[in-house]
Amino acid sequence: MARVSTYLNFPRNTEEAFAFYKSVFKTEYVGHIARFGDIPASPDCPPAAEADKNLVMHIALPTLGEHVLMGTDSPESMGFTCTKGNNVHINLEPDTREEADRLFNALSAGGKVEMPIQDMFWGAYFGSFSDKFGINWMINCMQPKQ
């Protein structure tokens, strides 16, 4: 089945970030948390450094509807470079303004609000922000004001 998901890279704090997202969305991880120490030995892939074995290799968490948020740590010892940037926004489209407010307030806590949530000219209740982990989010609720 086709689906839309978003994959996030973190500089060694994926598990902390996903614990936060899990508390906001009130969902459970899909499967188990795969760790770099779980990678089977292979001549094509050097073993993970001892300090990296407990880092997250893959994690998945449902958010709203069919959307799944996935993530990984980016250990330098394995040649990864994690750079925070503005190239990813996750757009959430909740069914109600109340849920839009809850998500906006919970996810933006400790972060930086770019545009406060408000009624917009295109008919949506919209706001955008970066969370405390540097991830960019947009909340876009098409439910009209009552």
Give a description of the structure.
The chain is of the alpha/beta class. 16% of the residues lie in helices and 31% in strands. The protein is built from two helices and eight strands, in the order βαββββαβββ. The protein has helices at 14-25, 97-108, and strands spanning 5-10, 34-35, 56-62, 68-73, 89-92, 112-119, 125-130, 136-141. A four-stranded mixed β-sheet has the order 1-4-3-2, with helices on one face. A hairpin with a 5-residue loop joins strand 6 (112-119) and strand 7. The longest helix is centred in the first third of the chain and has 12 residues, at 14-25. The mean pLDDT is 89.
Main β-sheet: number of strands, strand sense, barrel status? 4 strands, mixed
What's the overall average pLDDT, rounded? 89
What percentage of the residues does DSSP assign to strands (E)? 25-35%
How do the SSEs run, as a string of H and E?
A: EHEEEEHEEE
Estimated helix fraction:
10-25%
Report the radius of gyration as a whole number of Å: 17 Å
Structural shape: elongated
**Runs with pLDDT <50, length 5+?**
none
End-to-end separation in angstroms reads 36 Å
What spatial order of strands do you see in the largest sheet?
1-4-3-2
| Structural class designation | alpha/beta
Distinct helical segment count: 2
